[in-house]
Amino acid sequence: MLTKKQNLLETIKGGNPDRFVKQYEFMHFIMEAPGGRFPQPGETIKNDWGITFKWPEGQLGGFPVHDDEHKVLKDITEWKKYVKAPVIPTSDEAWAAAIAHANTVDRNEEFVTLFVAPGVFEMTHHLMSMEDALMALYEEPEAMHELIDYLTEHELAYAKALIDHIHPDCIFHHDDWGSQKSSFISPAMFEEFFLPAYKKIYAFYKANGVELIVHHSDSYAANLVPFMIEMGVDIWQGVMTTNNTPELIKQYGSQISFMGDIDSGVVDFPAWTPEIVAKEVERACRNCGKLYFIPCLTQGGNWSSFPGVYDSTNEAIEKMTKEMF
């Protein structure tokens, strides 16, 4: 029997896996690394960039607050006045918990994985709102290029700190690039503004010992897959059914793998049942096949919004392994 790591590699390299990869099983997340705060349900926080996040009780997640009082970047042409990158911690104490956790992982069995969020695109609209960020791409492209370069340089500095302290095998990187039906920006605009940033970031990780780049975007982004390949993404996690995953596998499977096709919104809700989960898992596995595909909830982490859904999905994947392998 292959290890989790071996089975994953056989799957994404078109080899001979002996079972379906069960969602995030190959990634061992090290969540103790310094460098980011996220709100918990019912909480309002301000992070090190000055961005205020609010997670209202009863909602499925948090989002930045963008009224006039809380918006960090009020004028893109004056971004240098408003945007100040936080200092990256360097003390042994700041990194001790993450290092200790990473040292417990059997790297032959699992990938030591660092969770990096938000990504470059998300940072632009977290600072100034989605509407302002999208308008700025059209109205002030020069300033947006400057801001993106600044964010990229900070992320590269943070990447160096992660590598120096943790020596990760895998990076799980969040940056949502679309809605359920379309990308937020055109492929041409993505190529101009964000592809260069990600080519630098992911090339840096790969040049410094990171074996696997997993990019999360639980959205439509089929029109951006060629750019994902160019920037060095190994696995696109969060691929929704609206992307026509089987067709993407057929077209690009030898260059990139796809993790998802089980839409969280369809199975992860208050009235969920194991039967609903099993139906969606079977559809995904039979349609997408054994290679270049990892059945997974589209949600960006090894959890579910409602208790039991994630574990039930794993059980259904095990059942499909018995039927198809």
Automatic annotation (TrEMBL):
One GO MF term attached to the UniProt entry: uroporphyrinogen decarboxylase activity
GO biological process, alphabetically ordered: porphyrin-containing compound biosynthetic process
InterPro entries, alphabetized: Methanogen_methyltrans, UROD/MetE-like_sf, Uroporphyrinogen_deCOase
Ranges for domain Uroporphyrinogen decarboxylase (URO-D): 108-286
Gene3D superfamilies xrefs: 3.20.20.210
Protein name per Swiss-Prot or TrEMBL: Uroporphyrinogen-III decarboxylase
Lineage per the UniProt record: Bacteria, Bacillati, Bacillota, Clostridia, Eubacteriales
